[in-house]
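Acetolactate synthase
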Amino acid sequence: MGVDYVFANSGTDFPPIIEGLAEAAASGIDLPQAITIPHEHAAVGMAHGYYFLSGKAQVVMLHTNVGLANGAIGALNAATDHVPMVLMSGRTPTVERGRFGARTVPIGWGQEMRDQTALVREAVKWDYELRFPEQIAEILDRGHAIANSTPKGPVYISLPREVLSEQIDAGQIAETPLMAPAVVDAPAAVIDTAADWLIGAKRPVIFVQRGAGDAEGFAALSALASDFAIPVVHYWATQIGIPTDHPMSVGANPEPWLSEADVILVIDALAPWAPDLQNPQAGARVIQLGPNPLFSRFPVRNFRSDLSIVSETSSGISALLAALRARRDPDPEGRAARRETVEQRSQAVRSQAIAAAEGEAGPVMSKAFVSLSLSQAIAGRHATVLSELGCPLAPMTLDHAQAWYQEPHSGGLGWSLPCAMGMKLAKPDRLVVATLGDGSYMFANPVACHQIMEACEIPVLIMILNNAEWGAVRQSVTMLYPDGYAAKANQMPLTGLSPSPDFTKVAEASNAWARKVTQRSELTAALEAAITEVMENKRTALLDIRVA
């Protein structure tokens, strides 16, 4: 099925799995590489990242209900990001005696649940509990195909220990998968309607939140925006759809583009704007395009959609570009004027973001300054940057489809570090940079993550933007209560993370190179040294950067 790795955290349900792996090794049978991952959250996060850079769904195997519970946050993140994976966990033995694989230790009773799958059912597309050993090949095949079907996402298989302990004839396993994924592309008539609306628009705009699908989609969207002078807004983007310095890239603020627009193309965006703050004008027409344009997994999402286009993102954009290029422009002079206006606004937005990051005074660093410094440090490298409450996108210069990944909108913290580790496993020669807040680093179970990076030889550059607090929580409070008691308090309740641990010692415990950076003047040299450690010395590097 094209699976390279099984990310596993073993338990008492694993003896038949471990025996099978040893038997396969002794018999010379080629299998995916099984990697010991000492925390389930890291296992799911690594599968998430591996898919992002390889395009291949991987397998995660966890320990009964307790391991599945630890992996549930990762399953929610994968579901929100449309990341396919086959998630499995053992199930405590059903019987107490009389069958090989029956309960042998007290946790066999303690880990039993009436509905173990309930832990992840709302995050997975399909689930099944294995009942007979001869089902294994076909059930895995079916799960893998469903995970990779439009819209992609995780599936779950429960594995009772008694079933795993039975014998089967491996010669019955098919050499090739039985089922192909069901991949959806938009009907030509629907694409034609969207093209007609866009070509006739006076003030069109595109909202991108989760990227353009792949490199082909990235190139197609870049050409579409350029050829037809359509501004692109990256509101709360988890991936970029066009280069950040593209003349049609107008930043993250929906305004004034949303309220001015007469046609709005929303590309795979869960929440393209905030309806309590911004809304389209009454006469505007809204096109929603993506693998699940109405996001049916989410009970409340009431953004208007006058035309809903179900399609894999990349192929949908490419089809729309071809349809637009086949049409005659009814107003070339109007398009030329629009291009000039958008380019001026785009340059102003970008210049302002860079100037704000550059123009700070004093030794204390902001996140924007760190972001700009990182952008300059990786210039000329085909790098991948992740941000989980870490470096902001605005000051960065990024130019390819795999350049930027922000935490999923499900908000399961601790995502970026294991995701970066999975990316590095998929692309060993790539510089992968995980930028994250101090709270997010703690959520990532860093001791487990550093052990994995050393054991698997997957060096990652880690940048902790350390403000010793839950900055996102503070921002949310001040947004709702700008003049409230909490905003005026010397110490806002339930946000402080002081005293900050010495994160460099956590990293050094697993042979990582680690430094603290407290002064602006130190950052450039520290970044250069860290990149050298990762790319030349093949050693994880961590920078604990103090920010305001």
